[in-house]
Amino acid sequence: MDILDVLPSNFGLVIFTYLYSWIMLGYLAVKVGSARKKYDVQYPTMYSDKEPVFNCIQRAHQNTLEVYPQWLVFQTIAALVYPVAASVLGAIWVTSRFSYAWGYYTGDPAKRMRGAYGYIGYFGVIILSISIALQLLRVF
């Protein structure tokens, strides 16, 4: 049995969503690396006592890494049954992480909420995953 026979026909869209998320993570990581040089924050120091803007840049990346594993799990579960919906929801979530970061990069942590629309994508794949679980349990 070939993997191409097992996965839904539109699963390629999901793979592109994963690639998009990889680009987003790389972008956030590069921004932290650049900020380390700009604000002279040496490894392994995670946060600066003197540079709050650096801390905002670091937090944008760190917060994304904190939620990324959960998103990957729910994105994958949802995509196995609803690949197009999961891809759209995933693209919303990934795009929102850019908005979140750009808001945070201003140095005003409240502006990170510019990415709050990402909850549509995040909770969307969670809801789809719950739906799949209930279908597997034959609840409905």
TrEMBL record:
EC number per UniProt: 4.4.1.20
Entry keyword set: Lipid metabolism, Lipoprotein, Lyase, Membrane, Mitochondrion, Mitochondrion outer membrane, Oxidoreductase, Palmitate, Transferase, Transmembrane, Transmembrane helix
GO biological process terms on file: leukotriene metabolic process; lipid metabolic process
Pfam families: MAPEG (PF01124)
Transmembrane stretches, start-end: 12-30, 71-96, 116-137
Gene3D superfamilies the record matches: Membrane associated eicosanoid/glutathione metabolism-like domain
Substrates-to-products reaction catalysed: leukotriene C4 = leukotriene A4 + glutathione; 15-deoxy-Delta(12,14)-prostaglandin J2 + glutathione = 15-deoxy-Delta(12,14)-prostaglandin J2-S-(R)-glutathione; (5S)-hydroperoxy-(6E,8Z,11Z,14Z)-eicosatetraenoate + 2 glutathione = (5S)-hydroxy-(6E,8Z,11Z,14Z)-eicosatetraenoate + glutathione disulfide + H2O
Topology in the lipid bilayer: Multi-pass membrane protein
Subcellular location: Mitochondrion outer membrane
Similarity field: Belongs to the MAPEG family.
Identification of the protein by name: Glutathione S-transferase 3, mitochondrial
